[in-house]
Predict the 3D structure of the following.
Amino acid sequence: MAETEKKFRAAITATARFLPDKVVTNADIEKLVDTSDEWIRTRTGIVERRFLEEDEPTSKMAIAVGADLLRKRGLSGDDIDLIIVATITPDMVFPATACLVQHGIGANRAWAYDLSAACSGFVYAITAGAQFIETGAHRRVMVIGADKMSMLLDFTDRTTCVLFGDGAGGVILERSEDGAAGLLDFELYADGSSVDCLYVKAGGSRAPATHQTVDAREHYVRQEGATVFKFAVSKMAEVSVSLIERNGLTGTDLKLFVPHQANKRIIDAAAERMDLPKDRVVLNIDRCANTTAATIPIALSEADDDGRLQSGDLLLMTGVGGGLTWGSALFRWGH
Ligand code: ACO
């Protein structure tokens, strides 16, 4: 929406996260596939990740985040107008996991939907949610990123199973009180021509689950690591630089950069392109690995709890992932 047509700005008024209790270290993964702690640390920056138990669904994490958001902001479920859950690991094909959150937190008035954009899911979802605040259609929108990536991991494939973890994070968006804080600008993109370099082959309508698809291990995430790596390095930097430059900013104007956490080398390359001092980059890939739609809200919630953001600070979130999808959102912190 053009700046002049906005009735309100959409400000982040609460953040929360949930990480499962079970810690899986690189040493644990070494017991499953031919890899080493040293390879995983140096190639990705990952030291450990969290996994849900096999019978625990994504909604468990998303509901915990939703309940914590309400508690932190002093709201009840009835105060929420809309819930968007970004996920590629919904509890079921349908209904949407967002509906399970809606019921789970007693958001009796809210409508609810899931959004699928893999590792760009949270940037897509927070931008979508903000539109309902900016037009004046809604007063409070809950945006959650939640993924149980452990359900998609092939523990015979060392090139993917070392990379991911489970988790969830989220925010509440509300009308900015001073009109200055909130979402300032965004850029979002998709390129569906390269689907086959990062995907789960079976389980959808193209290849419904059969004994054959299960035997062929087609229900797990597959990626051309090097192709995705090159794409992520170039797009994470490109979209971040483009968004800050078109707002007349440089990297040093940003208080925090909260990037999707897929590989520390991808993040370092983007930060370098933005001339961003290292202490402005929020990193938790060492502890959480790649939790897909959840990496950005988990990292944001940690930074918020650590008091790393003050009113007026500029914050950039950037995601790159399956689709392929990528995008950035620029916020001014504060209510
Ligand atoms: N342990 C030990 N060796 C390994 C492992 C492992 N876990 N995985 C791969 N190797 C080996 C390879 O077999 C290869 O060996 P070879 O040279 O004998 O063939 C060697 O290590 C180098 O492999 P590369 O793939 O070139 O390693 P690279 O340095 O590129 O790192 C990685 C691989 C970490 C996967 C990287 O390519 C990457 O991070 N890609 C992007 C991941 C990403 O961003 N995914 C998108 C998000 S996911 C989403 O949207 C759902």
Summary: The mean pLDDT is 96. The radius of gyration is 19 Å. The first strand starts at residue 10 and ends at 18. Residues 260 and 319 are 5 Å apart (CA to CA).
